Amino acid sequence: MATLHENHLIFNSQMSISNNGGNLPTDSGLILAKEFMHKINFTKVLKEKLTINDNRLYYKHDNYSIIEQLLFQLIAGYKTDSSADILSKDPIFQSVLGKERLASQPSISRLWDRLSQENIDQLQEVNQVLIDKVRTTRNTNELIFDLDSTHSDTFGYQENTNYNAHYQTNGYHPLVAFDGLTGDFLKAELRSGNVYTSNGVGDFVRPLFEHYQETTPVNTILVRADSGFATPDLYEICEEFQSFYVIRLKSNRNLGKIAEQFVFIDDNHDWTKKEVRYISTIYQAKSWKKPRRLCIKSTREANELIARHEFVLTNLSENTSAEIVFGTYSKRGTMENYIKEAKNGFYFDKTDSPRFLENHARMMLSLLAYNIINFMRTLCFTKETKGFQVSTIRLFLFKIAGKFVRSGRKTVIKLSSYHVHQELFYKILQNIQYLRWR
Questions:
Q1: For residue 358, is it within any domain?
Q2: 420: containing domain
Q3: What's the domain count of the chain?
Q4: Where are the alpha helices (DSSP H) in 168-246?
Q5: Residue 375: pLDDT above 90?
Q6: With 70 as the cut, is the pLDDT of residue 4 above it?
Q7: Which residue has the higher pLDDT, 412 or 368?
Q8: I need a labelling partner for 83 at 20 to 30 A (CA). Which of 54, 250, 307, 310 fits?
Q9: What does the DSSP assignment read for 119-165?
Q10: pLDDT of residue 2
Q11: 320 domain-assigned
Q12: How many CB atoms neighbour CB 271 within 10 A?
């Protein structure tokens, strides 16, 4: 890095600024993430599950260390591969990665070239192993599969990019699944931009159902999805695995006629008050093999004549009222926050590689980075801070100035004495070190 000459400041002519203060890392708080990853045996899991076809005869950086480097860059907020060139001798990155120099941007680019579709599947296996480990510690026996699709813009000639009419732009159309109870990122699949929302959803969720039925059984699985996923393929696979679902239906003429049958108005009706009615009935569309339970929410605003109808399909029993069904569905809105966190905080939608497979791999590393921080936040943060977004976590806990002091026997990381959130930092570090895995 080039050293700048001293620049005098206008507001105080006796003060100047330069960048020759020494090797002082600004991300010393990343030691928290490293300590947590060590506790969950991340490196061991990665090496057990991921096998990359590597024909290099000589190299300084193995594939696993490059992947970990990319994860730490994402966690710290550095989204470009070229950030590695500036961070190449950053003391904190050298320490958490255990190497004298980081892999350069060209080395990272060559890693993307070595990855295959099999490696994408293996990265999903890594994610699943980590989720299972964390779920065992949380001791939770319920899951909510929140399904959705999102959009990743592209700005060039990326492979399989296409125009999406809904978003009115070119890009990819990933399919994602989160656990609605914990925010864990269960799975993601990159798709071409013109693929319809529910295309392939059956093949997407079946491995999740099979895993949580056979490998790590859970008591209850609930699937939530918007009207883009209102397809018999999804209903039937939920019923096959005896799981519950609440899925919104798009309004149409037939559904509208059914809803209007339950609207009753007498001669003394008070039109000045808002009315909300919940109805449950049985409905079968022509493409369905059997009838299913339909819940209807009819809302008439004050001083309006016509009610607005909403529809949710479910297989929850009649003991669960239609109002509770709609309340359960409405909580799906938190998933939008998970998607925003993955995109804005971990660059899940960063698709600047020319090949489709490379962009899929980038997406999977963003997924892993998201989950590492979500695991740490839900397991080790204090009650008041469990809701922190990654931008706040970086500001409060990761972006800390530090100094490395090395002797013959040990290395001491001396953090800034003026770190405002140091009490929280050491509390979380203590919680990480106290973790006990089953």
A1: no
A2: 21-115+382-434
A3: 1
A4: 201-210, 232-240
A5: yes
A6: no
A7: 368
A8: 54
A9: HHHHHHHHHHHHHHHHHHHHT--EEEEEEEE--EE--S--TT-EEET
A10: 54
A11: no
A12: 11
Compute the average pLDDT of residues 182-199.
Answer: 94
| Residue 92 falls inside a structural domain | yes
Q: What is the pTM of this model?
A: 0.93
CA distances to 148, 255, 334, 378 from 339, rounded to whole Å, are: 9, 31, 9, 17
SS3 263: coil
Strand-pairing partners, residue 185, are 178
* Amino acid of residue 121: D
pLDDT at 346 over 70: yes
Compute the distance between CA of residue 358 and CA of residue 355 in angstroms, rounded to an integer: 5
Whether 426 shows a pLDDT value over 90: the answer reads yes
Angle between helices 30-39 and 356-380 (to 10 degrees): 90
CB-based contact 279:296 (threshold 8 Å)? yes
Q: In degrees rounded to 5, what are phi and psi of residue 161?
A: -70, 150
| Residue labelled with tokens 């022509």 | 286
Mean pLDDT, to the nearest integer, of 414-423?
Answer: 90
Which pLDDT belongs to residue 19?
74
Q: What is the pLDDT of residue 372?
A: 97
Q: How many CB atoms lie within 10 A of CB 413?
A: 16
Give the pLDDT band of residue 362 (cuts 50, 70, 90). very high
Cβ–Cβ contacts within 10 Å for residue 245, how many? 23
H or E, element range at 16:
strand 16-17
Q: For residue 136, which amino acid is it?
A: T
End-to-end CA distance of the chain: 46
Q: Where are the alpha helices (DSSP H) in 190-303?
A: 201-210, 232-240, 253-260
Closest CA to 404 of 88, 90, 105, 38: 90
The model's confidence at residue 151, banded by pLDDT at 50, 70 and 90, is very high
3-class secondary structure, 438? coil
Does the residue 49 lie in any domain?
A: yes
Q: What own/partner pairs with CB < 8 Å and gap ≥ 24 does 20-25 have?
A: 23/89, 23/90, 23/91, 23/404, 24/401, 24/402, 24/403, 25/90, 25/91, 25/92, 25/93, 25/401, 25/402, 25/404
Phi, then psi, of 351 in degrees rounded to 5: -130, 65
Q: Which residue has the tokens 């695991």?
A: 375
Indicate the SS3 state at residue 171: strand
Q: How far apart are CA 161 and CA 349, in angstroms?
A: 13
Tens of pLDDT, residue by residue over 26-84, are 899 999 999 999 999 999 999 999 999 999 888 899 999 999 999 999 999 999 999 99
H helices of 211-280, where?
A: 232-240, 253-260
Q: Rounded to whole angstroms, how far apart are CA atoms 144 and 142?
A: 7
Token readout for 220 is 């209850």
